[in-house]
Amino acid sequence: DPAPLASKLRNTLVRYHSIGDGEWRVAKKTKDATVWHKPSEEFSGYLYKAQGVVEDVTNRIVDHIRPGPYRLDWDSLMTSMDIVETFEENCCVMRYTTAGQLWNIIAPREFVDFSYTTTYEDGLLTCGISLDYGEVRSNFVRGFNHPCGWFCVPLKDSPGHSLLTGYIQTELRGMLPQSAVDSAMSSTLASFYSDLKKALKT
Predict the structure, then answer these.
(1) pTM of the entire structure?
(2) Is 2-200 a CATH 3.40.50.300 domain?
Protein backbone atom coordinates (compact mmCIF):
# COMPACT_ATOMS: atom_id res chain seq x y z
CA ASP A 1 0.00 0.00 0.00
CA PRO A 2 1.84 3.12 -1.19
CA ALA A 3 -0.43 5.66 0.56
CA PRO A 4 1.33 5.82 3.98
CA LEU A 5 4.77 6.08 2.34
CA ALA A 6 3.54 8.79 -0.06
CA SER A 7 2.00 10.77 2.78
CA LYS A 8 5.11 10.51 4.99
CA LEU A 9 7.35 11.50 2.08
CA ARG A 10 5.25 14.57 1.27
CA ASN A 11 5.25 15.69 4.93
CA THR A 12 9.04 15.29 5.13
CA LEU A 13 9.58 17.42 2.01
CA VAL A 14 7.18 20.12 3.22
CA ARG A 15 9.18 20.22 6.48
CA TYR A 16 12.46 20.67 4.54
CA HIS A 17 10.77 23.45 2.56
CA SER A 18 10.10 25.36 5.79
CA ILE A 19 13.72 25.28 7.06
CA GLY A 20 14.86 28.88 7.66
CA ASP A 21 17.44 30.56 5.40
CA GLY A 22 19.94 30.84 8.27
CA GLU A 23 20.44 27.06 8.40
CA TRP A 24 21.72 26.80 4.81
CA ARG A 25 25.22 27.52 3.49
CA VAL A 26 25.77 28.42 -0.17
CA ALA A 27 27.62 25.59 -1.97
CA LYS A 28 27.47 26.87 -5.59
CA LYS A 29 25.95 29.73 -7.55
CA THR A 30 25.44 29.88 -11.31
CA LYS A 31 23.27 32.05 -13.57
CA ASP A 32 20.61 29.31 -13.58
CA ALA A 33 20.48 28.24 -9.93
CA THR A 34 21.81 28.59 -6.39
CA VAL A 35 22.72 25.46 -4.43
CA TRP A 36 22.91 25.39 -0.63
CA HIS A 37 23.59 22.58 1.83
CA LYS A 38 23.22 21.69 5.49
CA PRO A 39 23.99 18.49 7.43
CA SER A 40 21.35 15.82 6.73
CA GLU A 41 19.25 14.41 9.57
CA GLU A 42 19.08 11.08 7.70
CA PHE A 43 22.76 10.17 7.17
CA SER A 44 26.28 11.55 7.61
CA GLY A 45 26.25 13.60 4.37
CA TYR A 46 24.44 16.77 3.34
CA LEU A 47 20.89 17.75 2.46
CA TYR A 48 21.16 19.97 -0.63
CA LYS A 49 18.71 22.67 -1.63
CA ALA A 50 18.72 24.03 -5.18
CA GLN A 51 16.57 26.88 -6.47
CA GLY A 52 16.11 28.76 -9.72
CA VAL A 53 13.46 30.33 -11.94
CA VAL A 54 12.50 28.28 -15.00
CA GLU A 55 10.63 29.77 -17.93
CA ASP A 56 7.65 27.45 -18.41
CA VAL A 57 4.42 26.32 -16.74
CA THR A 58 4.64 24.02 -13.71
CA ASN A 59 2.95 20.97 -15.29
CA ARG A 60 5.35 20.88 -18.22
CA ILE A 61 8.42 21.32 -15.97
CA VAL A 62 7.34 18.55 -13.61
CA ASP A 63 6.57 16.24 -16.56
CA HIS A 64 10.24 16.62 -17.53
CA ILE A 65 11.48 15.81 -14.00
CA ARG A 66 9.30 12.97 -12.77
CA PRO A 67 9.68 9.36 -13.99
CA GLY A 68 8.58 9.17 -17.61
CA PRO A 69 9.73 9.42 -21.20
CA TYR A 70 11.17 12.98 -21.04
CA ARG A 71 13.71 12.53 -18.26
CA LEU A 72 16.16 10.26 -20.12
CA ASP A 73 16.16 12.60 -23.14
CA TRP A 74 17.70 15.55 -21.36
CA ASP A 75 19.20 14.51 -18.00
CA SER A 76 22.85 13.83 -18.87
CA LEU A 77 23.50 12.05 -15.56
CA MET A 78 20.77 9.41 -16.06
CA THR A 79 21.78 6.52 -18.34
CA SER A 80 18.74 4.20 -18.05
CA MET A 81 15.32 4.20 -16.40
CA ASP A 82 12.66 1.52 -16.05
CA ILE A 83 9.35 1.87 -14.26
CA VAL A 84 9.19 -1.40 -12.32
CA GLU A 85 5.75 -0.99 -10.77
CA THR A 86 2.95 1.57 -11.14
CA PHE A 87 0.33 2.40 -8.52
CA GLU A 88 -2.59 4.81 -8.69
CA GLU A 89 -2.32 8.39 -7.51
CA ASN A 90 0.85 9.22 -9.45
CA CYS A 91 3.00 6.68 -7.59
CA CYS A 92 5.52 4.30 -9.09
CA VAL A 93 8.71 2.38 -8.38
CA MET A 94 11.55 3.06 -10.80
CA ARG A 95 15.01 1.59 -11.28
CA TYR A 96 17.57 3.86 -12.91
CA THR A 97 21.31 4.14 -13.43
CA THR A 98 23.62 7.15 -13.43
CA ALA A 99 26.82 7.85 -15.33
CA GLY A 100 30.26 7.93 -13.72
CA GLN A 101 31.32 11.38 -12.45
CA LEU A 102 34.53 13.31 -11.73
CA TRP A 103 36.64 11.35 -14.24
CA ASN A 104 35.03 8.18 -12.89
CA ILE A 105 36.22 8.70 -9.30
CA ILE A 106 32.49 8.18 -8.72
CA ALA A 107 31.60 5.01 -10.65
CA PRO A 108 28.15 4.47 -12.23
CA ARG A 109 25.38 4.01 -9.68
CA GLU A 110 22.03 2.22 -9.64
CA PHE A 111 18.99 3.36 -7.64
CA VAL A 112 15.53 1.93 -7.02
CA ASP A 113 13.19 4.72 -5.92
CA PHE A 114 9.56 5.08 -4.92
CA SER A 115 8.27 8.20 -6.69
CA TYR A 116 5.17 10.27 -5.91
CA THR A 117 3.79 13.41 -7.58
CA THR A 118 1.11 15.54 -5.90
CA THR A 119 -0.28 19.08 -5.80
CA TYR A 120 1.40 21.72 -3.65
CA GLU A 121 -0.07 25.22 -3.26
CA ASP A 122 -0.69 26.43 -6.85
CA GLY A 123 1.85 24.02 -8.27
CA LEU A 124 3.25 20.52 -7.89
CA LEU A 125 5.63 18.48 -5.78
CA THR A 126 7.35 15.41 -7.19
CA CYS A 127 9.29 13.44 -4.58
CA GLY A 128 11.03 10.13 -4.01
CA ILE A 129 12.89 7.84 -1.65
CA SER A 130 15.03 4.77 -2.33
CA LEU A 131 13.82 1.27 -1.51
CA ASP A 132 15.83 -1.86 -0.76
CA TYR A 133 14.38 -3.71 -3.71
CA GLY A 134 15.57 -6.47 -6.03
CA GLU A 135 19.04 -7.70 -6.85
CA VAL A 136 21.88 -5.23 -7.36
CA ARG A 137 23.41 -5.57 -10.82
CA SER A 138 27.05 -6.62 -10.64
CA ASN A 139 28.53 -3.69 -12.60
CA PHE A 140 26.91 -0.99 -10.41
CA VAL A 141 27.13 0.27 -6.86
CA ARG A 142 23.63 0.65 -5.40
CA GLY A 143 23.15 4.19 -4.12
CA PHE A 144 20.41 5.35 -1.76
CA ASN A 145 18.28 8.49 -1.97
CA HIS A 146 16.97 9.69 1.38
CA PRO A 147 13.78 11.79 0.99
CA CYS A 148 14.24 14.02 -2.08
CA GLY A 149 11.86 16.18 -4.04
CA TRP A 150 11.15 19.11 -6.34
CA PHE A 151 8.62 21.87 -5.60
CA CYS A 152 7.47 23.74 -8.69
CA VAL A 153 5.14 26.73 -8.26
CA PRO A 154 4.15 29.50 -10.70
CA LEU A 155 5.63 32.95 -10.05
CA LYS A 156 2.74 35.17 -9.02
CA ASP A 157 3.83 38.22 -11.03
CA SER A 158 5.06 36.21 -14.04
CA PRO A 159 2.71 33.26 -14.74
CA GLY A 160 4.81 31.89 -17.63
CA HIS A 161 7.70 31.32 -15.20
CA SER A 162 7.98 28.90 -12.27
CA LEU A 163 10.12 28.75 -9.16
CA LEU A 164 11.73 25.32 -8.98
CA THR A 165 13.17 24.27 -5.60
CA GLY A 166 14.82 20.88 -5.11
CA TYR A 167 15.89 19.01 -1.97
CA ILE A 168 18.37 16.19 -2.60
CA GLN A 169 20.23 13.92 -0.18
CA THR A 170 21.92 11.07 -1.97
CA GLU A 171 24.06 8.49 -0.24
CA LEU A 172 26.32 7.33 -3.08
CA ARG A 173 27.83 4.48 -1.01
CA GLY A 174 31.08 2.80 -1.90
CA MET A 175 34.47 4.12 -0.74
CA LEU A 176 34.42 7.78 -1.76
CA PRO A 177 36.15 10.89 -0.40
CA GLN A 178 33.45 13.21 1.00
CA SER A 179 35.00 16.22 -0.80
CA ALA A 180 34.51 14.47 -4.17
CA VAL A 181 30.87 13.74 -3.32
CA ASP A 182 30.21 17.36 -2.26
CA SER A 183 31.79 18.78 -5.38
CA ALA A 184 29.86 16.37 -7.65
CA MET A 185 26.51 17.03 -5.95
CA SER A 186 26.76 20.85 -6.22
CA SER A 187 27.84 20.73 -9.87
CA THR A 188 25.22 18.13 -10.81
CA LEU A 189 22.40 20.19 -9.29
CA ALA A 190 23.52 23.38 -11.05
CA SER A 191 23.80 21.50 -14.39
CA PHE A 192 20.33 20.01 -13.81
CA TYR A 193 18.81 23.50 -14.17
CA SER A 194 20.75 24.49 -17.30
CA ASP A 195 20.00 21.12 -18.97
CA LEU A 196 16.30 21.34 -18.00
CA LYS A 197 15.99 24.85 -19.42
CA LYS A 198 17.54 23.75 -22.73
CA ALA A 199 15.16 20.76 -22.91
CA LEU A 200 12.08 22.91 -22.29
CA LYS A 201 13.04 25.28 -25.11
CA THR A 202 13.25 22.51 -27.72
Answers:
(1) 0.94
(2) no
